[in-house]
Design a protein that fits this description.
Length: 216
């Protein structure tokens, strides 16, 4: 019995060591150094002796983005590329501006959950669960309302006012969450995905696919 318990203890210790990971950063900060030509999973740290307050500072989220585009929205990113002090901290944020009836087209963030709050206007928001259910969850948000989009799921926002702009601020659980806009990725890939493949996938004629691809 004692030998059996000893064996279980050894196995538990072994598996605990194998599964252990660092729960958070291992120093106060690791300000990104974009000039270092070293490839790592993230960005190389700047020498702490050279770090300054501006490395943790970003100015501009008070400025409206240019929404004069096909979808009528603009996303101002504050990712690690714009704010070096975010490196290793696992957070970022965006400002999203919407023209009247503008949309933030269906997209995913492969590396982050997003939590969004409406600052101005009214938004219809939603996300779709993964296969096989593909359940759509939607909600109309007023100023001050908050909605969360789970990591990796397709989601969208739409300004439902035809006369007024809307503004939202969102936080994301990654310094570099990534963005995959579904229409751009599917119909605007470089080179194009074979139109016959997309026609079969969307159950439409090939001509329909080529016309859509031409827009991207």
């Amino acid at each position: 019995m004692a030998s059996y318990l000893l064996l279980l203890g050894l196995l538990f210790t072994t598996f605990s060591c194998i599964l252990a990971t660092d729960p958070s950063q291992l120093q106060d900060f690791c300000v990104a150094d974009p000039n270092r030509k070293v490839f790592v999973n993230g960005v190389v740290c700047k020498d702490p002796k050279l770090v300054k307050a501006d490395d943790f500072f970003f100015r501009g989220l008070n400025m409206m983005g240019n929404t004069y585009n096909d979808v009528g929205s603009n996303v101002t990113q504050v990712f690690v590329a714009q704010l070096a002090g975010l490196n290793t901290l696992g957070i970022s944020m965006v400002r999203i501006d919407y023209a009247p009836l503008g949309i933030n087209a269906p997209h995913t963030h492969p590396r982050a959950t997003e939590i969004l709050t409406v600052i101005e206007g009214r938004l219809l928001v939603g996300f779709v669960t993964s296969n096989p259910d593909n359940t759509l969850f939607t909600k109309v948000l007023e100023v001050g309302d908050v909605f969360v989009f789970p990591q990796g799921l397709i989601h969208f926002q739409a300004n439902i006012d035809e006369h007024a702009n809307a503004v939202a601020i969102a936080a994301l659980s990654s310094q570099n969450p990534g963005v995959i806009t579904i229409a751009n990725a599917v119909f605007g890939s470089n080179p194009d995905i074979d139109a016959n493949i997309l026609a079969k996938a969307f159950q439409v004629d090939v001509d329909v696919v080529t016309k859509i691809q031409a827009k991207f």
